[in-house]
Amino acid sequence: MKTRVTELLDIEYPIIQGGMAWVAEHNLAAAVSKAGGLGVIGAANAPAEVVRKEIRQVKEMTDKPFGVNIMLLSPAADEVAQVVIEEGVKVVTTGAGNPGKYLKAWKEAGIKVIPVVASVAMAKMLEREGVDAVIAEGCESGGHIGDLTTMTLVPQIVDAVSIPVIGAGGVGDGRGMAAMFMLGADAVQIGTRFVVADESIVHENYKNKIIAARDIDSAVTGRSTGHPVRSLRNKMTREYLKKEAEGASFEELELMTVGSLRNAVLDGDVVNGSLMAGQIAGLISKKQSCQEIIHELMTETTALMKKVPQMFEVC
Ligand SMILES: Cc1cc2nc3c(=O)[nH]c(=O)nc-3n(C[C@H](O)[C@H](O)[C@H](O)COP(=O)(O)O)c2cc1C
Question: What residue ranges line ligand 1, CB within 6 angstroms?
Answer without folding.
Answer: 18-21, 23, 42, 44, 69, 71, 95, 116, 137, 140-143, 168-171, 189-192, 195, 276-278, 280
